[in-house]
Design brief:
By secondary structure, the protein is α+β, with helices and mostly antiparallel strands. The chain is 61% helix and 8% strand. The chain has two domains: 71 residues, Glutaredoxin, CATH 3.40.30; 131 residues, Glutathione S-transferase Yfyf (Class Pi), Chain A, domain 2 (Up-down Bundle). Strands 2-1-3-4 form a four-stranded mixed β-sheet, with helices on one face. Helix 1 runs parallel beside helix 3, helix 4 runs antiparallel to helix 6 and helix 4 runs parallel beside helix 7. The longest helix is centred in the middle third of the chain and has 23 residues. The structure holds glutathione (GSH). The site of glutathione has 10 residues, from helix 1.
């Protein structure tokens, strides 16, 4: 059986978990914190989560894991078949990662783990976010899904990047993504009707509560 390594607060972990659930895969979750534990480094070379164990070995990097999931299951495709539309879904996934997730991630240490946050960092992140939001607003369609009429991997990537990212952005910058991305609020509500997202969120919310209280 597939094994998914990671923990339920991680946005990247939750992107993969939601996709596995949506595709109907059976899988076991193995609770692991990212880090330099030699046993985990033998599975995930950078010590990052998520990591997916399959019959043949271990796979890391969320976009690569999602490609694998799609390659091994043709039921309920989560990439469009047509090459240009498939590329546009991948473009949205990559842009979400580079210009939203990795921007907001610079605030995670301060917001989730009590690290100091300098005005310089706050201003730099705010400026990067301005550019990222402009770019995402050009790429997003919400018709009703992020990349068009069909649910795709871009929805899971955006959903978990935007929800965790927004917690950090609100706390550190006093900004809300729903105020800056037209259609985001309605799309978030749509995604929250998805049963895979609901299942992932139950575990995420419990894990977040435990993390923030201790
Ligand atoms: N590029 C990786 C990023 C994954 C990632 O950054 N995961 C976080 C948890 S949300 C992590 O493992 N952080 C530990 C670290 O950066 O050393 C992917 O796409 O899977």
């Amino acid at each position: 059986m597939l094994k998914l390594y990671g923990f339920a607060v991680s946005d990247y972990y939750n992107m993969v978990k939601a996709a596995l659930l949506e595709k109907g895969f059976q899988f076991e979750e193995v609770q692991v914190r990212p880090g330099a534990d030699p046993a985990f480094l033998s599975k995930s070379p950078m010590g990052k989560i998520p990591c997916l164990e399959v019959d043949e070995g271990f796979i890391t990097e969320t976009n690569v894991i999602l490609d694998f999931i799609e390659d091994v299951s043709s039921d309920l495709p989560l990439f469009p078949a047509e090459p240009f539309r498939r590329a546009k879904v991948r473009e949205l996934m990559k842009s979400t990662e580079l210009y939203l997730e990795l921007v907001a991630r610079q605030l995670f240490g301060a917001v989730f783990f009590g690290a100091p946050l300098t005005d310089e960092t706050r201003e730099a992140v705010a400026a990067q976010l301005d550019k990222g939001v402009l770019a995402l607003n050009k790429l997003l369609h919400f018709q009703p899904y992020a990349a068009g009429k069909e649910l795709s991997y871009a929805d899971f990537v955006l959903y978990y990047a935007a929800t965790l990212g927004d917690m950090a952005i609100q706390k550190a910058l006093g900004r809300k993504l729903v105020d800056e991305i037209p259609g985001l609020a309605e799309w978030l509500a749509l995604m929250e009707q998805n049963t895979s997202v609901q299942e992932v969120n139950r575990d995420r919310d419990q894990a977040l509560k435990e993390m923030m209280s201790g």
